[in-house]
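Recap quiz, item 2
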Amino acid sequence: MIAPLRLAFQALMANKLRSALTMLGNIIGVMCVVALVNIGISGREYIQGSLSSIGQNLVFVFPRYDPDAEDPAAKWRPLEMSDVDAIERDCPSASGVSPYAETGTKIVFGNQHTQTVIKGVWPCYLEMCNWKLAQGTAFTESDVNAGAKICVIGKKVVDQLFGNLDPVGQIVRIDRQPFKVVGTLEAKGAFLTGQDQDNIVFASISVVQDRLTGLRKLGLIYVAAKEREDMEKLKDEIQAALRQSHHLAAGAKSDVETKDLGQIASVVDQVMLAATALLSAIAFISLLVGGIGIMNIMLVSVTERTREIGLRMAVGATDLNILLQFLVEAVVLSAVGGAIGVVLGLGLSAGVSAYFKWPPSLSMISIGVAVVFSAGVGVFFGLYPAWRASRLDPIVALRNE
Amino acid sequence: MISTPTDRSMGAPLMPAGETPAPRNTVISAENLVKTYGEGGPASVRALRGISFQIQSGESAAVMGASGSGKSTLMNIVGCLDRPTTGTYRLNDIDVSHESRRRLAHIRSAVLGFVFQSFQLLPRLTALENVELPMQYLSGVSGHKRRTAATEALVSVGLADKLKRRPTELSGGQQQRVAIARALVNKPKVLLADEPTGNLDTRTGLEVLALLQQLHRGGLTIILVTHEADVAACASRRLILRDGKLVSDTQQTPIDAASELKKLPVDATIG
């Protein structure tokens, strides 16, 4: 099979510009497929990484909004601290539970101040959500019980208020009330939405509720599962626990929602997948158009080389020899185009990933599919011209001028 | 190298089958060949109307006739490029009148060598590569063997110093010599030359004819198709066709092209 390959390369090199232009369809098609798939994978990895920075095994519990309820108060029934206790007591699959309350406020140190978000949680929250201490300590359960006005601050707040000073042990004012900084957090960077996760202050839920918001009700409870596989089980346990705690009648609709990040991630995945599929479909159309271009050029080539075909037949080439010669030429044309497309596509996806600081990806499957598909295009669209060539009558072909 | 399963067994059916007691040295045997184009239609043309002849191994025969006499049709059948409508054509004692396209291709590569009026060299290939071409379609010929055989063939036609030249870099006479080398490279039983001097001036034409005569003296069977009496005179037998029929078949003493060449005035050379 070396001879037909060499023959094909010779024939293609004899018309360099024409061959290159013919390949363009395949180059662009394969480049798009390879680039899109790899960019899609990079993007998904980035999103998943970003989501897991919040905490991987988390279930969010929040009140269900029920527009059909007759009693306005029943449309949206906030959660209570007793619900947190119920979950902690009745859900064996939970490794941690924390109430959650937040308020935007100004934080002041000396003559520096900044706008930030203060979050009231239980001490276990920091671990549940993958926060790591940079300096100092976190607050403890006894601090929560004692209503101690202490806080842990994010990297951004440290930079804004303290500069090069050591924040641990300093007193800051939050909503004009003094809080002692006991620890600082490692940076997490921006979340998917572009929100800076490091512009943050954590304090005990009791202090935030009593001193800052004045609200006893809760909008959100964080629950962490012991095992990732137990997420669904945990949700069922939470639902059961809260039905009991809310005294719901059997058969009544639950008044709380339980969601996890996996669900959010899968929505993001679906959107990404749909976008990749759509763009890939367009790229495949480009491959198809490229294939038609190859067919066109091969038909021209057969016509141009009618005499060559006649001569080859006269000196002993069979129909099959001629068919293979032109088929191999078409396949080489599309496969070389495909190979160039793979290289360009990988370059493009590497460039995009680097630009957005996404993790780079190299999907062998995308390369395989693109190469096989482009060679397939060569076979499919090369077959008819090659068949035409093989059916030529050598007498007529030799007489052709 | 393209190879098909039957390549290797090619030679066998071409050996004398022994079923008919034909003389051992008969290479070509045509019996009542008829060729009708567009049979049954209103524009049906009877190109051959029943032609019979035999050619022995080692003969040199000229087939003559005006255009429209059917000589091209006859040569296409003799060259296994076409099949007769009726009649029997035996080549090397094998009936090839009804063979498939594929079998005919194998027979052409193993038994026949072609020389055309317009040389039919592939412009992209060197002289050597052009001569190697017929061997591509025989299995079991290594690249090295092909190169050696092609070089030998080119040396034998006096082009030892032109191996790497492309056809455009060669004169008409040299191109036709490359074509003859290509026809010889598979060691054919019969060389078919269709107007081999038609595109050449007198001197170059004589040179080519002298080369063909030299090959004939070496034992090669040659069939020369021409409408020129001067060219036909170089063969030892002359068949004349008219309106699809063989009207004359005579033995003759061939003139010697090499000595004719010496008689030419020096200034008759053009190219």
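Chain B touches chain A at residues 1-2, 4, 76, 79, 81-82, 101-102, 105-106, 108-110, 114, 116, 120, 122, 124, 133-134, 136-138, 182, 186 (CB under 8 Å).
The two ends of chain B are 38 Å apart (CA to CA).
End of item.
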